[in-house]
Model the fold of this input.
Amino acid sequence: MALLFLLACLAQAGAAPQAPLRVGIYQNAPKVFMNEDGGASGILVDLLREMASAEHWPLEFVACEWQACLDALDAGRIDLLPDMAWSDERAHRYAFHQVPVLHSWSQIYARPGSAIRSLLDLKGRRVAVLAGSVQAQVLPGVLAGYGAVLVPVVSLEQGFAMVGNDQADVVAANHYYGEASAKAHGLEATPVVFNPARLYYAAMPGRQPAVLDAIDRHLGAWRADPDSVYFASLRRWQAAGPAPAVPPALLWTLAATIGLLLSALAVASWLRTEVAARTRALRDNERKLSTILDSVDSLIYIKDAQSRFQYVNGALCRLLNRPAAAILGKTDADLFGPEQARMTRAGDLAVIEGHERYVAEECLNGKLYLTTKIPLVHDEEVHALCGITTDITPRKQAEESLRIAATVFQSAEGMCVLTPDAIIVEANQAFGTLNGCPASELAGAPFPPFSLESDGDDYRERMWDSVRYEQSWQGEVWTRRRDGERYPAWLTVSAVRDANGVLTNFVCTQSDISARKQADEKIVQLAYYDSLTGLPNRRLLYDRVTGCLGRHGRQDHVGALLFLDMDNFKDLNDSRGHVVGDQLLQQVAARLLACVGASDTVARLGGDEFVILLDALGPDEPQARQHAEAVGEKILVALREPFEVGGAVHHASCSIGVTFSTGHEDRLDDLMRRGDLAMYEAKRQGRNTLRLFHPSMEHEVTYRTEIETELRAALLDSQFVLHYQGQVDGDGLLTGAEALVRWQHPTRGLVGPAGFIAIAETSGLILPLGRWVLRTACEQLALWSASAATAHFTIAVNVSVRQFLQRDFVEETLAIVRESGIDPACLKLELTETLMIEGVEETIGKMHALREHGICFSLDDFGTGYSSLSYLKRLPLDQLKIDQSFVRDVLDDPNDASIARSVVALGKSLGLKIIAEGVETEAQRNFLAGIGCDHWQGYLFSRPVDARTLEELAA
Done:
């Protein structure tokens, strides 16, 4: 026993005192606040004290403003914060218990006479709102588009004071605080209510789980018991004020009453008889009243202060399909759901707390009801309310129908009502405007005459007969205004009959469709004609060609399509502007129309492309060919005549392609494709000419398509190889090679670059092919650098314009150089003169970027293009290459010899090395050496060979 006593003492001595539960308190009476004595008070404080007493929690209340309370909770300086409204955002940040402490909503408060009835009235207003509160989170979304300005405050007291001092127009607060504080600041509640909310005690996640569980346990028990401390606290704090002291006069009255009661005992026997009789009469009256109330279609009910139903009539039972016993004691939330309950509860509170009659329209189960709620007062306290809810849906629908009918009748559409004899009874102002007179002058007049055609006969009588038989008529008519102006109109007439089928009226609607008809014509013009030239566009051309194909097939006639494209039209646009270009196109269109017959079609497809449809040129193709060529030559001559555009003379020409149609198995797409092919053939033949379609043109296109398809497969199957043509110096030593791509075709054999490079350029396949060539050449250069015999080799790689102008060409090239591990100075990129025309500034920038890493450049085919010396001197070149077209005849053609000398002289003056390609004889080499060229390439030294063979030559 002594040992047990000793252990108990030690345990008690070793137990640490329980840490107090720190609770944040901010000013939000009557829910939570610090009173005048510096102590915590309010509904949520009282309830927490009750829980703390039961759970043995020591409490420590910490006064703070709302935002400071939130910061303290985040920082762990307080453990619990009462009066936290739940929201999705806060649910992710704080820990809440399950059972809400209170239900609340937010309301707008303003000075009396502010005339704020809805959100629309808040436009441009200054709205004071507690910073960090749920109102501050919700209001930006609620007021979006209304132009209200939010004014953050640190406390609700400051917000109400700012409105009272005209520093803000309104303040947003929870209704508990608002009802308690509005009058003290001279404010009143407005009808603007928003954000119903559930209020909780909040903690940080994981910090106070046991406290939150205990709060849920107490709240669950209290809310199930109407006599619990929970409801007692609510009644105490929500009461209007303390009960008045009992006056002495009332005490004397009570004493007198007691005396009278004692006297009444003497006559109690007589009273029992009288009461029994009155009770029977009262019960009879109750039954009668109940019968009357149950037979009324309106919903009649009585609710207590907690909005629980205490009485319901038969109409409400029928609506809910429940007996009265299953409804009494229930709330709107139980019977209609939480959404409906939130709407009706606001009206209940207006009656119970405001002591005033409440009338409003409410929506229930898709119907509209008019609800009147009346306070039931006992001892000057509202203890219940009586509600009468009447279905006004039919009345509202009728009002809406009448409103719509009145609105429609006064709309912009002309309307009138006539007698069965077609005499106007009433017309709206729009109908009077259509007739060119006030609507009042039309009453008693016959319906104005109209016709179906612009100059047709009066159609009124036939129309009235049709309406009497068919009940309605509508159509496009022509009528006149009072001043005689004719205009098109759309007229609709309907017959109106009574319940016995007797015709009582005609109702007419009429609208002026002049603008619509003009718009229709404009739409047709825009849809089928070119806006610049007024010629038929592609759509109308296709329609006419399709129609001609059918006629040609039936009548064995031949037609022709002439595809015309202006030569060098882009140069005119670029040099003199699009306005001048448009003027030229308009004049070209006029000349084309003058060259064809009235039955032919001249269309503009877009840009500088025109198509001419020559219909029915003859019964056979030779005759049609002769006619088409004659028209084409006429057009060529006409367009060669000078044009006056932009205040200057301009000479133009065109290229024409011709294809023929017999209508037999011809398709529109085929004709358009053939005409395009013939036109592009005329372009290739030097422009300013005419070419007739020939099947070989399709064969060429087919061949190019096949080659393109096979090129794609070749890239996937690695069918390309590199050959190398040696380059030698003045001593005849092999210094390097030019990498030349070959296609090892599975069926065509070894194909040289002339057979596929041009197609690769136009199809875009030159990009992956160029990357492969550059990578393969660098890998070969790396192998040569490892051998003493070839370590000094340089390698020249041709780069296409399209490849060089790629945005990432510099980065891609440098990456290949790094991966292969070669010396960048041994790599020479050969560029053509085309780069001097396309993107000069971009080319110079990329060349400098690569030159900084040691990569060299050679200008290939120099002298064959359009090099500008002003650009040439800016390029970081290392070498000029004399094209083989000059080298081939350098011994026989003085012009080629002069060009070669000029290239060498220019290169030397710019400090560049010179190399000549295509050297095939000793005489050519000697001549070139004599003019200063010190490097050569050609069959004299080496044909293009594989890498192994070139290595053997170097050895």
